[in-house]
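> forwarded from #structure-qc
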């Protein structure tokens, strides 16, 4: 919201809270949707000046990443919001947190579908 109560473009708070630069917010429903693979969509929420990124990943029932997801240049942090996420080896139900260090890899999939919050602290 702007100081006069209007919504800022893209759902972001103009000027930040208390005038703090860089403070932003966006509703997931307002984030643009990008299809990565059939049944797998990314909703980018934020990108930092250093390349760090936050997004929501939506996986339909039966969807599977095409190929191997390698975590480069840095780690990947995942929180399972809903459903069950499978990293190629085991299931992670809603409420699970996964840390994948830089250089690690997996093959994301979901038999029942899921939503994930994904954070890349180093881009």
């Amino acid at each position: 919201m702007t100081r006069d109560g209007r919504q800022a473009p893209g759902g972001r708070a103009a000027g930040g809270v208390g005038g703090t630069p860089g403070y932003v917010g966006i509703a997931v429903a307002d984030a643009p949707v990008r299809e990565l693979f059939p049944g797998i969509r990314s909703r980018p929420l934020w990108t930092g000046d250093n390349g760090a990124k936050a997004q929501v990943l939506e996986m339909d029932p039966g969807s599977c990443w095409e190929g191997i997801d390698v975590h480069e240049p840095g780690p990947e942090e995942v929180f399972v919001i809903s459903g069950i996420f499978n990293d190629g080896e085991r299931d992670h139900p809603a409420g699970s947190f996964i840390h994948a260090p830089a250089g690690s890899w997996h093959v994301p999939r979901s038999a029942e579908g899921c939503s994930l919050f994904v954070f890349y602290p180093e881009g």
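QC bot note: The first strand starts at residue 34 and ends at 37. The two ends are 27 Å apart (CA to CA).
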